[in-house]
Specification:
mainly alpha, 2 helices, 75 residues
């Protein structure tokens, strides 16, 4: 029996094609969404970095705030 004369059931192939098409579409949508989220929040994070002038002053303020809270609440 030669290959050209064999009869195959193609229902699995048609279903697999549909599943692969949907899967590739979903993966592409997820990748594009990831790029969009990265781009949106990278600009926002950079704007926060510009607002922080001196990290040492920020650390001192946080430390001072913790000391005040410990005195107030007696922890």
């Amino acid at each position: 029996m030669s290959i050209c004369c064999k009869q195959y059931d193609a229902s699995y192939t048609v279903e697999a094609t549909a599943i692969f098409g949907i899967t590739i579409g979903i993966l592409m949508a997820m990748i594009l969404l990831g790029f969009r989220v990265y781009h949106t929040y990278s600009e926002e994070i950079l704007s926060y970095e510009r607002e922080i002038e001196d990290p040492a002053d920020t650390f001192r303020l946080i430390s001072c705030g913790k000391d005040v809270l410990e005195e107030v609440f007696g922890n």
